[in-house]
TrEMBL record:
Keyword Protein biosynthesis: no
Biological process according to GO: fungal-type cell wall organization
Protein name: Cell wall protein Ecm33
Residues making up the signal peptide according to the UniProt record: 1-18
Region (Disordered): 341-372
GO CC terms: cell surface; fungal-type cell wall; plasma membrane
Primary location recorded for the protein, binned into one broad class: secreted
Subcellular location(s) per record: Secreted, Cell wall
Pfam families with a match to the protein in the record: Ecm33
Gly residues: compositionally biased ranges: 355-368
Keyword vocabulary terms for this entry: Cell wall, Glycoprotein, Secreted, Signal
Length: 396
């Protein structure tokens, strides 16, 4: 008699164990409820495209694989009351009605990718999502990133979130890339603890706080921002390019500790910038110096070496600057590449548009002599959304 009841009981236990592993496709709220006994789900959970129920993955504390929602235009809410860790990815793409993400215990995910969520206006992450390797948030209506407070990250991409005006994190380092672009009209980007990064592209921001930033191993670019000042008081080196392009309200650039730029130094098309004097300790530029716009004075008092081309072009009279830098130009002088300085020109151009053989005319400073021009490499500003192209030049 005992065996008669034991066999069905073992079958139930085996069924429950099987439900907690593998790949589970959730097509209804009942499917989600069936996983509530799984403290750990060993595998992947996917929400079906056809699901129209609000999904609550309650009871699960850890998913060893991924949690995904793709091309669902019916579900409005996704939640998990106890989930604290997703070992792989948390991916939501093209969920057109999803308005609620409620994960009060979630703190750690390897990869976050939330793209195409036109109804998602807020996040409910009470414990705070703090451990993420890669995060990509695009095309949402989020107003803030409250509930996300990363300490370190490999890649952070936040683009095309038209209502997002507050991006504040306690990031200490970014090991691959940080990209902000085309978010709200009044974006405040606050990274007060950020000390080093590999690549950073900051666009369409009204204020940027990088007060602790000391080292950028790759490129650092500011494109089409809306603030009047860009301050990097502790920045000492940029391994590749440093660019300030099409920041129309910019009146002041300040990087008083900067000594080395490994690639090009680009200051281009910043309409209100009339003084380029924020690099008092800059000694070495491994690529080109390319300054063009509406400025009247350029000061680089500590400059010792420019390995690429040197181009100054302004609508204003910069004769005194031309004369000063002309003395530093030549194959055995600090400025080794092609030297160009044009004062009072109606159409200031970047280095690539001045390339060609022979000497270039230096208004206010005579003829420039140089070795061959630097080889150009092109990078797009931010994610290419503004149509801004910065020309960064390599070594001779």
């Amino acid at each position: 008699m005992a065996l008669r009841y034991l066999v069905p009981a073992l079958a139930v236990v085996g069924s429950a164990a099987a439900a907690c592993s593998g790949t589970s496709t959730i097509s209804s709220s009942a499917d989600a409820a069936a996983l509530s006994t799984c403290s750990t789900f060993s595998g992947d959970i996917a929400i079906a495209t056809s699901n129209g129920d609000d999904i609550a993955l309650d009871g699960i504390k850890r998913i060893t694989g991924s949690l995904s929602v793709r091309k669902n235009n019916k579900m409005s809410s996704l939640s998990a009351d106890s989930l604290s860790q997703i070992d792989d990815s948390f991916e939501i793409q093209d969920a057109t009605l999803l308005s609620t993400l409620n994960f009060p215990s979630l703190t750690a995910v390897d990869t976050v990718s939330w793209i195409g969520l036109p109804q998602l206006g807020s996040l409910s992450f009470t414990a705070g999502l703090s451990q993420v390797s890669s995060m990509d948030i695009e095309n949402t209506v989020l107003a803030t990133l409250d509930g996300i407070n990363l300490v370190e990250v490999d890649t952070l991409i936040v683009v095309n979130n038209n209502f997002l005006n507050d991006i504040t994190m306690q990031l200490g380092n970014v090991s691959t890339a940080l990209t902000l672009s085309a978010n709200g009209q009044d974006v405040r980007a606050e990274f007060p603890n950020l000390e080093w990064a590999t690549n950073m592209t900051l666009s369409n921001c009204s204020s940027i706080n990088i007060q602790s930033l000391a080292t950028v191993n790759g490129s650092l670019g500011f494109y089409s921002n809306f603030m009047d000042g860009i301050m990097a008081p502790n920045l000492t080196s940029v391994g590749e390019s440093l660019a300030f392009v099409s920041n129309e309200m910019l009146t002041n650039i300040s990087a008083p500790s900067l000594r080395t730029v490994g690639g090009g130094l680009i200051v281009s098309n910043n309409t209100d910038l009339v003084q380029i004097n924020g690099f008092p300790r800059l000694q070495t530029v491994g690529g080109a110096v390319d300054c063009n716009g509406n400025f009247k004075n350029v000061m680089l008092p500590s400059l010792q070496q420019v390995k690429g081309a040197f181009n100054l072009q302004s609508k204003r009279d910069i004769g005194s600057s031309c004369s000063r830098f002309q003395k530093l130009a030549g194959s055995s002088a600090p400025i080794r590449g092609k030297y160009t300085c044009k004062s009072g020109t109606a159409n200031p151009k970047g280095v690539d548009s001045t390339r060609g053989g022979g000497s270039s005319t230096s208004s206010g400073g005579g003829s420039g002599t140089s070795s061959s021009p630097a080889n150009p490499m092109y990078i797009s500003g931010a994610t290419g959304l503004m149509g801004v192209v910065a020309a960064i030049f390599g070594m001779l």
